[in-house]
Amino acid sequence: MKIWLNDPKSIMGMIRSRKPELVSSTCADADLAADGIFTFTARWDMERCTDPVQFPGKPDWTYRHGDDDEWLYQMNRHGFLPVLAKAYGYTGDLRYKTSFIHLISDWISSCPLCPESRKTTWRSLEAGIRVRNWLLSLHLIGDSLPPGILDAMENSLRQHMQYLVDAHDTFHEISNWGVLQDEGLFLLAVYFQNDGLRKVALDRLVRNMSLAVFADGSHWEQSPMYTGEVLGAYLSVVNVACQQEIPLPPDFARRTELMAVAFSYFMKKDGMLYTHGDTDAINACDLMAFAAAVTGNPGLKAIAGDDGADLYPFFCSPAQVTAYDALEPQLQRMSVSLPDSGHFFLRGKHLDVHFSCGSLGSGHGHADLLHVDVSYEGEDVWVDSGRYTYRDIPIRWELKGALAHNTPVIGNQSFTEPTGTWSFGRVALPVKKSIRTEKDMDCASGGHLGYLVSHGIYVERKVLRLGEHVVVVVDIFHCPSSTDTTDTTDTVVTSSFHFHPDIRLNSDILLDPDTRLEQGAVFGISGRTVSGNMALIRHGSVTLENAPYSPAYNEITEGSVIRSMTHLNRSMVQAAVLSLSLTDDLRPLAVSTRPVTFARKQTELDDRLSLGMAISYGSDEYTVMVVEEDLIGEVDLYRCNGQEGYGRVQVFIGTSPHGTCLEW
C-alpha cells in the first residue's frame, strides 16, 4: 500500500526548479555512496563522522571506524539509500539505482537476524530507522526496481515488522528508541495494511508520549537533538494518519504540535540548536517546516524560514504542500519558559539567552545545572562545550561534567557526578523557580541542592536580560551560620564562562578605552560580527584558558574559557555583566558596585546577601538591586544609587524613580 499520497516524480521536478543546489548536494552525496565511500554528515545523523571510509567492493556492515560502535550503528540505519533514490529520480543516472540495488542486496544477504546481530546490525533502534529509509526509497523509485529486489526487500521488511513487535520492554516505553522503532512499526503496518499491528504501534506511541513528553511539551531526556528525532517520528505518524484517514488517539495530534512549539524554543535566531546535553549544533529549520506542513501552525513556518524544501514535500500530500505555501508565517519571539523541564529562554530582537535549571533526564543529560548560553544576532558567545563522543574515555566524562559548562563549582567537586558514558553517581536536585518579563527586561532564576550535604551550601543563580545588549548573571551562595564566619576553612568557588572558538578575548587592551570597572575584572570580546565586554563583580583570581569545544559528534576544537576562583568562607553574592552589539555599533560598558541600604533606617544591608550595581552601556543606564534578605517586623524599602523600591531583584532605568521588580 502506498504510504504517502503524493507523486515523487512531480516533487523531484519541483525541487529541481526551486532548489537546484539541493539537487547538486544530493547527487554529490550519492556519488560517494556509489563509489563505496561512506560519511555520515546529513543534518540529522545522530552520530556524525566526516572521515570518508571506503569499501572497494563488498561493504563490511560490522566495521567500527575509530573503534566506535556508533559508526556501525549509523551505517546500518541506511540513510544513504534515500539519497541514492533521490539522485536517481533527479537525474535518471542508472549508476545510482545500480548502487542502491547492490547495497540493499548485500545487506539482506550478509546481515541475518540472530542473537549476535541484535546487538550490532539489528539493534531495534537501527531497525526502526532503517524501515523508514527503506520505505521512503521504495516510495521514490520502487516502481523501477526489478521484481526480485522488490520481493527481497518486502520479505525483509516483514521480518523487520515482526522483530519490532517483539523488541519491546520497559526501556522502550520512555526512551527515544521506543518512539523511533514504533514509528517504523506503524509505517510497516500501513504499508502491509495490518490494522492489528498498526494499533499496537499507536498504543505504544501514546504510552511513550504520556510518559516522556511533559505537559509543557518538552521531553524528559534533556537533549534537544534527540527531542527533534522523537518529534520527527510523532509528526511522521500524524502526517500519515491524516493522509490515510486513520483515526488517532485523543490528544495525540495536539500534543505533537505542543511538542513542536516547545522544541522551537531551543532554536536560536539563526535556527541552530543549543548544544544542551548530548546535542550537536544542528540547523533545525527543516524539521520546523515539516511541523508547519503537518500542523498548519504559522509560527512554526516563520521559524522554518526558507528551509525544508527537501524534507516535507516527499512526505506530504499535494494539498498539504499547497496549504503550506499559502500559510502566512507569523513570528513571535518572546521570552518563555518550559517549567516542567526547567528551561528559560530570555529573548529580544537580537539577543538569545538560555538558562538551564531542570532534571538530569536520561544518560544524554549533562552536569549543567544553572548553565547559561548567550548568542547575539545568531553568533554564539557563551556556549555549552558539547558532547564529542560516546566512547567511555576521559574527554566524554570531561564534557559531561560541570566544569565544561557555564556554572559555578564548589571545591572542585561536580554537583552532579558523571561516572561513565551513560552513568552518574551523585545527582544534584534542581530548584526550579520562575521567569518574569517587564519592559524589555527578563529575570529567570533557579538553584540546586548539589552542595547542601557535602558543604552545607545552597547555590542560586539569577539571569537578567536588560534590553537588547546587556546580560547580568548573579550567583548567590547561601552558607549556614555554622560556616558563615571568617574562622572556617575557605572553600573555593570556580566559575566558568566558555566562549565559542570564533570569539577572541583580551583582558589587557579593551576594545573600547571608555570601558571601565571599579571592582573586578574586564575582558574585551571580539567575534565574527559581534563585539562587547564582560565584567566580573566580586570574583576572585581570574584566568583565561583554552578548553575543548565540540559542535558535533566526532568534531572537536578549542575555545576560550574564563575561570574565576573565589574563596568562600561566608555567604556571598557575585555577578558577571556581559554587553554585546554588532562590531560597528560597539558602545562603552561601565559597571560599579553600590551599597544597598534600608531607605528608612539608612543602615547598610550585609553584602553577603545583597548586591547593588550601576551599569551603563552607551547612553543606557541601569541600577540593579539584588537582595536575599527579607524584611521581618519592619516596614521599609531598599535604596541603591539614589533609587528606592522593594523586591529581591529590582531594575531602575536611567533616573526614573519607578523601578521594575523582576523577582519578589
UniProtKB/TrEMBL annotation:
Coiled-coil positions: none
Gene Ontology molecular function terms on file: lyase activity
Keywords associated with the record: Lyase, Periplasm, Signal
InterPro entries: Chondroitin_lyas, Hepar_II_III_C, Hepar_II_III_N
Keyword Lyase in annotation: yes
Main subcellular localisation: periplasm
Pfam family, one: Hepar_II_III_N
Name assigned to this protein: Heparinase II/III family protein
Compartments where found: Periplasm
GO cellular component term, pick one: periplasmic space
Entry annotated with the keyword Amino-acid biosynthesis: no
Every Heparin-sulfate lyase N-terminal domain range: 57-279
Domain Heparinase II/III-like C-terminal: 333-555
